[in-house]
From TrEMBL:
Gene3D superfamilies the UniProt entry points to: ZPR1, A/B domain, ZPR1, zinc finger domain
Name of this chain's protein: Zinc finger ZPR1-type domain-containing protein
Source organism of the structure: Adiantum capillus-veneris
MF GO annotations: zinc ion binding
Gene Ontology CC terms: nucleus
Entry-linked PANTHER family: ZINC FINGER PROTEIN ZPR1 (PTHR10876)
Region: Disordered, residue numbers: 205-228, 462-482
Entry keyword set: Metal-binding, Nucleus, Repeat, Zinc, Zinc-finger
Amino acid composition bias (Basic and acidic residues), ranges on this chain: 210-228
Top-level taxon: Eukaryota
First-listed, main subcellular location of the protein, grouped into a coarse class: nucleus
Length: 482
């Protein structure tokens, strides 16, 4: 567990035991863990039947997006099974190989390991097996076979995939390789659905849940001026605007005005369009503004920004314009002075980031899409890595892990203080990333290099391009005369 920064005195209250119904004692400890969350540690003990359990609840705010951690557990690897897992009340655990799912209500908020989560699930399933053998022997027999497989996974006798998906974004799986990439662990962030918003206690617009009166005629919700920007499927739209419609993936949380001002210095935007939208955090009604602008030496891009007056959430998104490039692009810049730290950077969610001096490589999708500077990119890398790897920072972390983090932070500070030159590399198979030159013409910037390359079959497969067939859509557009 991470070092405790501040805590309140331990509190004790009486509560009923769920097993015997007698009074037991519950101890509560309110604490805040640096680089993690505000949590409530709860421990229950019954003196009558010796029942004991503990629970972790999150006292802080919900995250703006949900998270999904996918861990591949090889056969016979005890270290992977001992990785620490934080599961919040709203998280769901899945093991696809067993077609097994632990719903949020089955296991409340816990701090455990991969092995501990599976053994607890097996214990809870097997608790009523004796009663099932008397009433439903066939079901009990099937569960016995399943428990053998589940315990086999928990003991490392079988390989499996451990998935924990949390709409609140408060669940984590330990990454012992931090701050580097973990070949066995992948993390994905997603926007919550209206149903997930409601389950977490947010106020959800009833019309989003399928209200017939409001959803039967969606065109009445939009003015004549913005009607052509209604999402596809509700109204015809011009051929060139399909990729610029409302999207709900928040790839940059910041001031949308700052994003706009950073792009305006390249070229003046076209007319700013405004259309109705819903907040990605609380699902309340808000407005989204959109315009297209051209960045010299790069391409046309579409900027979308939303602000919510209800919860204050802000979301800015950058989408590439035009067709999918035939080739990928690898951009590298040699950072020699503080002036280079202020270079503008557009990093798409398909771009990887490499800094050889840090021996750091971030796979595509790790940071999402960003509109920032070289300095801002470094800071966000540091913050995101800390947020995803809190287990390497606390008092329960191994000395080698702590030492590794201290070395990484020292190297990061040296790069930000420009104590030595270093190199930033963006490798984007869709060529949607960009680093701005510091000279009037990009050819005069000797520190900036850009190379195009042919995508491999696997890269096209990962991007969904190998099986892409747009002939039906093209024929439909031609038929409608768009």
């Amino acid at each position: 567990m991470a070092d405790v920064e501040e805590e309140l005195p331990l509190q004790e209250i009486e509560s009923l035991c769920m097993r015997c119904g007698e009074n037991g004692t519950t101890r509560l400890l309110l604490t805040r863990i640096p680089h993690f969350r505000e949590i409530v540690l709860m421990a229950f003990e019954c003196p009558h039947c010796n029942e004991r359990n503990n629970e972790v609840q999150f006292a802080g705010q919900l995250q703006s997006q949900g998270s999904c951690h996918t861990l591949t557990v090889p056969k016979g690897d005890a270290k992977v099974l001992s990785r620490q897992v934080v599961k919040s009340d709203s998280a769901t655990i899945k093991i696809p190989e067993l077609e097994f799912e632990v719903p949020p209500e089955a296991q409340r908020g816990t701090l455990s390991t991969v092995e501990g989560v599976l053994l607890r699930a097996a214990e809870e399933i097997g608790a009523l097996q004796e009663e099932r053998r008397k009433t439903e022997p066939s079901q009990a027999e099937a569960l016995d076979r399943f428990l053998v497989k589940l315990r086999s996974c928990a003991m490392g006798e079988s390989s499996f995939t451990f998935i924990i998906s949390d709409p609140a974004g408060n669940s984590f799986v330990e990454n012992p390789h931090a701050p580097g990439l973990d070949p066995l662990l992948s993390v994905r962030f997603y926007d919550r659905s209206p149903a997930e918003q409601a389950a977490l206690g947010f106020l959800v617009d009833p019309s989003l849940g399928g209200d017939k009166e409001n959803s039967s005629r969606p065109e009445e919700k939009h003015s004549e001026e913005t009607r052509k920007y209604v999402p596809a499927g509700t109204q015809k739209v011009p051929h060139g605007t399909i990729g610029a419609q409302l999207a709900y993936k928040a790839i940059l949380q910041g001031n949308s005005e700052d994003v706009a001002s950073s792009l305006l210095k390249y070229s003046a935007p076209e007319e700013v369009m405004t259309f109705p939208s819903t907040c990605g955090a609380c699902a309340a009604r808000c407005e989204t503004r959109m315009y297209a602008t051209n960045i010299p030496y790069f391409k046309e891009v579409i900027v979308m920004a939303s602000t919510c007056d209800t919860c204050g959430y802000r979301n800015s998104e950058l989408k590439p314009g035009g067709s999918i490039p035939i080739k990928g692009r690898k951009i590298s810049v040699r950072v020699l002075s503080r002036k280079d730290l202020s270079r503008d950077v557009i990093k798409s969610d398909t771009s990887s980031v490499t800094i050889p001096e840090l021996e750091l490589e971030l796979a595509s999708g790790t940071l999402g899409g960003l509109v920032t500077t070289v300095e801002g990119l470094l800071q966000q890398i540091s913050e995101r890595l800390k947020g995803m790897n809190q287990f390497c920072l606390g008092d329960s972390a191994m000395a080698t892990d702590k030492h590794k983090w201290r070395e990484f932070e020292e190297k990061m500070k040296k790069l930000l203080n420009m104590e030595a030159p270093w190199t930033l590399i963006l490798d984007d198979p869709l060529a949607n990333s960009f680093i701005a030159p510091i000279t009037d013409t990009i050819q005069d910037d000797v520190q900036l290099h850009s190379d195009e390359y042919e995508r491999t079959w696997q890269e096209n497969e990962d991007l969904g391009l190998n099986d892409m067939n747009t002939s039906s859509a093209d024929a439909a557009y031609e038929k409608e005369g768009l």
